[in-house]
Structure formats: C-alpha cells, structure tokens
Amino acid sequence: MKWLINLWLLSQWKFRRCFRLHGQSIAPIQWRNPLLTSYPSQELVNTLNNVQRKRLHTIVEETRTISMLTKHFPSEISAQNWIILLECHTRKQRLDYLKFLRSKELKRSKEKSKKLEKCVFQPEKRKERSEYPFYIPIRKMEKQERRIAWERVARAFRLGSPILVVDCRFLPLLSPRGAELTAIQLKYLISENRDDRTPWPLYFTNFDQTSERIRRLKERHLSGIESPTTCCPIVSPLSFSCLFPQEKIVYLSPDAQENLTSINEDYVYVLGGIVDRVTERNIPRQASLQTALYEQVRCKRLPLDEYIEWKSGSKFLTLTAVFSILRSVYSSGGDWKTALVRHIPVRNTRSSDEKSIAGRQFHDKIRRFDHQLLRILDDEIGKDSIECAVHISKHTS
Fold first, then answer.
1. In this structure, what are the phi and psi dihedrals at residue 392, rounded to the nearest 5 degrees?
2. How many domains is the chain built from?
C-alpha cells in the first residue's frame, strides 16, 4: 500500500504546482525500502534493564521508519550510537542525531578521497626528491613543527599569560548532538591555541570524567588531552572558582550588563561550554550569567554593539570565535574593531536581505522536510511519548 500512498501524494503535489495552488511547496516524502541495516547487538541489550529494553525496541522501530522516509541516513549505527539515541529526550533530537551521523560519514568519505588522490602521486615525488641529499621529508617537518607549537603552549603556562577557562559543567546536560558539536569545538580550540604564535594557558574545568557522557566525548574527540607527548589543556573536575582567585575571574556571557573593555594578562577569562547552534531544553536561557552569579565572579560581555553594526544574525558566538577575538585584542593592545570584524562570521552580521536567497530557501526546505517527516512518524507509529532513559549501564562499544 505504500506505493499507492506515494503515487497519491506525488500526483496531488504535481497538480498543485501545475495550477499554482497554495499549499505544500516541497515534494512529498516518498516511502522507500528501509536503509537501516545495523541493529543493537544482544550484548548491548543484555546490559539494559527492562524499561530501557522496551524503550530501545520503540526507538529501533522509529529509526527503521525514519530510514524508509529519508536518504540522509547513516549507513551504520554502532552500539555507542544506540546508547546516545537512548539518551535523547525527544523524537526531534533523535532525528537530528541521525542526520548528524550521516553528515559525519559524508565528511569522512570526502576526506578519505582526498587522501587517496594525494597517494597517487607520492611514488613519483619520492623518486624526484631522492636526488637531493639534504631533503627533509614533509612528515618529519610537520612533526618538528608540532613539537615547536607544543613548546610554545608549555611556555605560556610558565609565563602566565591571560588564562582561558572553558566551564564544562554543561556537557552532561546538552542534547547528544549539542554535546558532540561542543566537543568538536573544544578540539578546535585546543588546536587553534596550539598553532597560535602566542598561545594562552588553557583549562577545562568541571570536566567530570566519572560522567559516562564526558568519557564517551573524550574517547571520540578529546583523546589527546591525556597524551604524554603534547601539552594539552589542564583538565580538572573542580570549578574554576576553586582553582583561581575570585577577584581575577571574568565570566563572559552575552547576557551580562557590563562590557569587557580590555584584556588583562593577570586575569582568568571563562567561557561556558555551550554550543551555539542547537537549542537546549535542559539549559536555562541565561545559563552563563546565572553561573557567574552563583560562583560570585564578575560577568562581562564582548562589546559587540559598540563596534559592529548588528543586523539579523545571532549574537551567540562559537567558542573558537570568542577565543580568537580575545587573543587578537590582547596581542593588538586593545584593537576591538579589527578583532571583531575579522573573527565574527559574516552570517552573524548580515541583514536578512543580504543573505543568500538560495541558502535561505535551502534551509527552509530542510526545516519543512523535517516537519513533514515528524508528522508522518506521528501518524505511522504514534506520538512521541517515551521518556529518556535516566541511566545507562556500562556496556561494550
């Protein structure tokens, strides 16, 4: 009967388009054969209690149905991925996470293709380079450059430049997709600080490694923080207020009343580890401001309105963007204008008229597609009424 539904919906859509009638403006979702091929293993199921098993069964049915409605679906779902799907609070979060997994697969495939293209020319280049007795292999040069970069980071800790702290207390509260995006930003933060000519001492506080969520994020994205060959951030389960004098701490928040006017080399600047692209139901709207008040430290905001003509974009910046602004202002002796213009993404400062019409239409179609898919799921398998599993037992990946 699914083919009949496909035919009816497609005919209805084409009729509306032909006569320019109001209504559905994107092509209807078509039922296909399920793309889901990797199901939870029995080993994983055995680690769950009865409530979690029942929930997992419902999520598997939901995931299989999603795989029949969209091509943007991951080719493989690991045991770790099923656990994360169990932790999602809503059907929309599970859909977003599945799309996130597929996007990561496509990105890895693209990177693999680029590496293979480079390897094709490698043998010929080796023959040419062997003629030069003083030739230094690129891999050896890159290793030397990384070693020099980490030496700069170690020197920054000894000299005591301005200190940057990322408050990681929010990581266990984020949605699975939000936590993944935040962990990726933390990884970028480490590498950008390492590659800068004047890196800052970097700390991750409230980094509770007893949390299953944080342990998984560390394994996937932040495994280098325990490497003996690198000078990575100092990671602590304690709060920043226990590590530094309160009078030296400045918590940065877009909701603060007072502007940050200068960067003091004796101060500690704290960023809340909250992703900027995902709305989080478990985190208050002014979480960073509330945290600063709770810890009884000063709270300030970047002087965005004083130097930038803001139009329709969001004033919530990524961790890497804020850190780049702070470093640029400090190294330039207080040039806020140049730092903000250089490091704030253009998408944040454009008006709605200046933004790409094609881009707006594309993202609007994605939103409507997701809305249509969720509506079909409600009709097909019922409303999303299952509750998030509070605790997941230890399992093997």
1. -110, 130
2. 2
Instruction: Report yes or no on 208 lying in a domain.
Output: yes
Q: How far is Cα 189 from Cα 172, in angstroms, rounded to an integer?
A: 19
Q: What is the pTM of this model?
A: 0.72
Domain containing residue 166: CATH number? 3.40.1280.30
Question: Exposed e or buried b for every residue in 155-175, given b needs 16+ CB within 10 A?
Answer: ebbeeebbbbbbbbbbbbbbb
**Do 169 and 282 fall within a single domain?**
yes
Q: Among the residues of the chain, which ranges form H helices?
A: 2-18, 42-46, 50-67, 79-87, 91-120, 122-129, 138-159, 176-195, 212-221, 240-243, 287-295, 304-307, 319-332, 336-343, 346-349, 357-381
Query: Does residue 338 sit in the same domain as residue 213?
Result: yes
Question: Which residue range(s) make up the domain with 85?
Answer: 24-129+358-397
Is 30 domain-assigned? yes
Q: Residue 309 contacts by C-beta under 8 Å, 6 or more apart in sequence? A: 349
The structure tokens listed for 202 are 């970097």
Walking along the chain (397 residues) 10 residues at a time, the average pLDDT comes out as 65 62 66 91 92 93 93 92 90 92 91 78 52 61 65 63 91 87 91 81 90 86 74 86 93 92 92 77 86 94 87 78 92 91 78 65 83 89 66 41
The answer on 335 and 237 residing in a single domain is yes
**Do both 224 and 337 map to the same domain?**
yes
